# Entry
Amino acid sequence: MADVKVADQEVSKGFDPRLIGKDQSGADDQDAESGKMVQFVSFKVDDSEYGIDIMAVREIQGWVEVTKLPNTPEHVRGVLNLRGIIVPIFDLRCRFGDGLTEATDLHVMIIIAVGDRIMGLLVDAVSDILTINTEDILPVPEIEGGGDKRFLSGLITVQERMVALLEIEKLFDIESLVQQVVAAE
Amino acid sequence: MLPSAHDDPFAQFKVTFFEECSELLTDVEQHLADLESGDFEGETLHAIFRAVHSIKAGAGAFSFTRMVNFSHKFEYLLDELREGKLEVDPDMVSTLFRAFDVLSDLVSFAQNGEAVEDSYGQDALDRIEEYLSGQNGGASTDAAGGAAPEAGAEASSAAAKELGLEDTSQGMSGATPVQTKPGEKHFRIEFTPSEAMYRHANEPLLIIRELSDLGRTETTIDVSRLPTLQALEPEDAYFSWVFDLWTTADRDDIDEVFEFVVDDCDLTIVTLDSSDQVVAVDVSPCHEDAGGDGFGFFIDEMDIQAGNVSAVAPKAAPKPSAPAAKTNAKPSAPAPKVAAKGPSAASPKAVSIRVDVERVDKLVNMVGELVITQSMLAQEVGHTENGPSDRVVSGMDELSMHIRELQENVMSIRMQPVKSVFSRMPRIVRDVSKKLDKKVRLVTIGEDTEVDKTVVEELADPLTHMIRNSLDHGLETPAERLEAGKSEEGTIQLSAEHRGGRIIIEIIDDGRGINREKVLSLAKEKGVVAPDAALSENEIDNLIFAPGFSTAEEVTDLSGRGVGMDVVRRNIQSLGGRVSVQSFPGKGTRFQLTLPLTLAVLDGMIVSIADQKFVIPINSIIETVRPEASDVEQLVDGGRVIRIRGEYIRVLPVSRIFGLPGGEQDPSKGLVILVEIEGSRTVGLLVDELAGQQQVVIKSLESNYKAVEGVSSATILGNGSVCLILDVDALSQMPVLDAVPARKNTNGRARISHDQSRKSVRSDMGSEEIGHAHQRQSSGNDNTMGAHVAAE
# Structure
């Protein structure tokens, strides 16, 4: 219920372009009454921009070849040696159903922690760190056929661009679901 | 974990308590086994007593009433034993074992927070009671005293004398000689229990008895703390004592008497010479000392207590009343604190420390990283343009040496003697042989052999099962044995030794051996082997490890638990080990377990399959061959077999099982690594080439991802890349994928990799290292590889 209420306020605010600008610049002066400030790391996959909670991000690393795992879903690119820890790397483009990323040195892996697991997301580029008010997060509209909605927690508008916020727990849940299905087959 | 871990402020202490309980119980079991074998001394009984007492003390602190009540009686029985009032006979041993079982169960009930029936363990209590009631009335009344012995209950006449209560005035009690005899020392001990002593399940009476066992004592009691009847708290301790002890025993022995209460009292022990002059001032041992057998969670309190001990000249009169020992906890002088450290430093007990396994594992991991980094560095240095300078080379050599040494030492921290598992076996032999009416002697050899903690823990189940198996199936009944011209008593020998970086555990019995006819016919009957199969003797012997196989004619309650030797084999294999059996009909059977010393590293053969590197555990490799094209046969189902020395061996095309594009598909052009899989079967893994042999650090895939079929774990190679370790058993059961993705490339790539593999096979085969590795593994087939290489 709380989400819906926040969303309603958002819709009315969303019509005032000045507010959006203010949200970006005057982020620090926001008082408690207007909600909590949160930070997201934003990155690009193709032309779309996504955001991920900065608290989950452990590090960002340039793409290096990873070791392929046999008989795993296509979007599981393989495992990486991250200072002695074996970390699985997921191809986010492929996860979104747009085929494998042809990874080059310019691509990056965002290493994130989900629960007590460490994993990496292969993306095209990291663009920014966004500080936003939770009140400015818009709900994801119902999309025909579900689409990405299942692992998006919300949408924000930054300088007229839409940034989709990723819900990593859900992304990971789906991840394990997909794997269970594959394993069952 | 404890269910109440979050809301219980003592949860952490309880964890420590249960950890210590399990260690203590292991000790008790070991000592009980000694008792049973008759190979024991007074010290054995003392050790059991101490362990039970420790458990009682801890249980009291956490109000595990049942445990306290039970251990209290158990302790009494032990006390009578060690005082020689009762005899250690077989019946007594079995009572002790039963009591031990009940105590272990009570501990585990308490640990799991399970409720215990009131009648639980009553049989053991009754048996103990029987023994005790045969004793003087004083002791049994005492024994019935229960959990929180009250001062009143102890005041029976016998106890009263010992307590020094006989004469309630503060005078000397009895007419004990006061002269110090030659060789004796005179100690004066001032002992003021804290009020809470009884509530902590400690009992001054026992201490006093123990003290008087050391020599002649003079006891003075101070009852000045005793309040009026109205103010008296029945569970509080009010008395304090001064003992004069003339003994030949050492100071350490006296410390030991007070070991359990040292944190719970004011204690001063001084040595006096014959003229009552102070020659040495000593204070009670500080907590490091008591930590050896006591409970770690008392440490903080002990710190205070250590400061509380006053290093003063002996007083003729007992200490003035100290109503609350704890509130009184002010250091009387700064000096005692320093002095308190003294005795402990010299104490022989402070030789080990308790360390969290997690910390050790972290260390093991770090060193693993170091090894990888070092090999990475070595590789890099080797590749520099003009070659490394001499100093760099020698520096790298030294570094490598030190790191190896460091690794070995760190690994050894996790090492434990197999004793902890072996010590459980006498018990099993005893119980089972009794049930089966067989006479059996168990001989254990090499129980100090060390192996990784995890291996030790995982060893218990398979070993138990194998011992049971030997008792049940291997050894004959006494009558049968006599008939066969053997001694009535059968022997099972359990031994452990290090050999070639692995631990070898053997279980040898002198029984009837494996009945091969029966095994074979049963195997055929059960469809384990084909009806017309012709098997070698050794193969028949090994059939007992086949899944679903049991030779017991009738299902006893020992066999027929749904656990067969196949489970043993699987358990051992999951530890990276193997098990084999050798039978000598009429003479006996020998089971041999070979296990890695550690699960942190393994010796691996690095192979290349479809341009990707994989590790195959060396211990599963039998030999490596490149078959002639004429030895490769195609089966109707599309699978391939190769013929080696008249046998057909299935070839697993790893690249196709894993769905990797490329990779050699023709066994005669690639390499076939013969590996042993579950059930002593051999399969061949088709690989492109060998890339070398090295020890690898095992990393889990599951901690951040999940298990991948056909892959047991991963490792990191010298170049920093992740390399997967193959699970050959799982591989052999995986389906072969029909179509390899990107098939278009297959032909071209196969040819290239084929050429490469030919080249590298030759050079690799020349390498000493691999040659040795194979000779070690090929066991009697040493020339095979040479022959095949020559055939190339």
In short: Chain B touches chain A through 27 residues (CB under 8 Å).
